[in-house]
Design goal:
This protein is α/β, with parallel strands linked by helices. It has eight helices and 15 strands. Strand 11, helix 7 and strand 12 form a beta-alpha-beta unit. About 5% of the residues have low confidence.
């Protein structure tokens, strides 16, 4: 196997490894995903620290802010600056005064880590906070959902390099993929996608969100916060995710594998 060319991208690194092939152990090079502490500050207030892939961090900041109810829309963001430090990256987000007041009134300590969307949350209402139901729309063909999942997989460039990242994608109702974001954390990937949709002012509501993971209730929360009525996951949903999807008017699909899928909520939003 030839040594891969040197990398010049922030989301992965090249390392030297010993690789066993056909019983022979030899030196080789490998690409691994970067995982960096990313601290989010709002108007100088330290709010959350996550372990994330250091790419598309502006999208991440906006998507996290929307998903967490810190802002109501992209218009509440006045600016985003990235401050690189020796031990990580600080994302400084300037938000409107009204949003700052609201954040201070319900401020909570939260420290996240890869694969965990709730570390540090202090009260159950903060975990199970309600989300506004997604507006109804025309049913989406199941073949379009399957096509959206295949299209997302074809655009997982970082996963192809490293094998260590999740992805979240958005496709139109026809299944054509328009956006994909990747991260070592599944929640982070979806936040990046939500932020990208908002920053590009895309009318996301009639489309499809796909994720390369299981469908936890947080993934449903974030999808509903983006106003999207269809969420499709490679793996299984949880019971709480199904209940939230029922309440939020989100069609939740799991086990999208090849031509197979299981619809767990709002089957009227899916058609053949």
């Amino acid at each position: 196997m030839p040594t891969p060319p040197p990398l010049s991208r922030p989301d992965c690194a090249q390392v030297q490894v010993s690789r066993l092939r056909a019983g022979v152990l030899g030196a080789d090079a490998d690409c691994v995903a970067e995982e960096t502490p990313v601290a989010l500050e709002f108007n100088g207030i330290s709010h959350a620290t996550m372990l994330a892939t250091p790419a598309d961090l502006e999208d991440f900041a906006v998507g996290f802010s929307l998903s967490e109810g810190i802002i109501d829309g992209i218009g509440d963001v006045r600016g985003i600056d990235l401050l690189r430090q020796c031990d990580g990256i600080v994302v400084q987000v300037e938000i409107s005064t009204a949003c700052e007041v609201r954040l201070k009134s319900r401020r909570r300590a939260m420290a996240g880590r890869t694969g965990c969307g709730l570390c540090g949350v202090e009260t159950l209402p903060e975990v199970l906070r309600p989300v506004a139901p997604v507006a109804g729309g025309a049913p989406v063909r199941v073949q379009a959902v399957l096509a959206a999942m295949r299209g997302m997989r074809e655009r997982q460039a970082l996963h192809d390099l490293t094998g260590a990242t999740h992805a979240a994608g958005w496709a139109g109702a026809d299944g054509a993929v328009a956006l994909v974001r990747e991260d070592v954390g599944r929640h982070n990937a979806l936040d990046k996608l939500v932020g990208a949709l908002a920053r590009q002012d895309m009318r996301a509501g009639g489309g499809i969100v796909t994720v390369s993971s299981r469908a936890s209730f947080e993934m449903v929360q974030k999808t509903a916060a983006a106003g999207v009525g269809v969420l499709a996951a490679v793996s299984a949903p949880t019971s709480l995710a199904i209940r939230l999807a029922d309440d939020a008017n989100v069609a939740l699909l799991g086990f999208l594998r090849g031509d197979d899928a299981t619809v767990y909520s709002h089957p009227e939003r899916i058609t053949t």
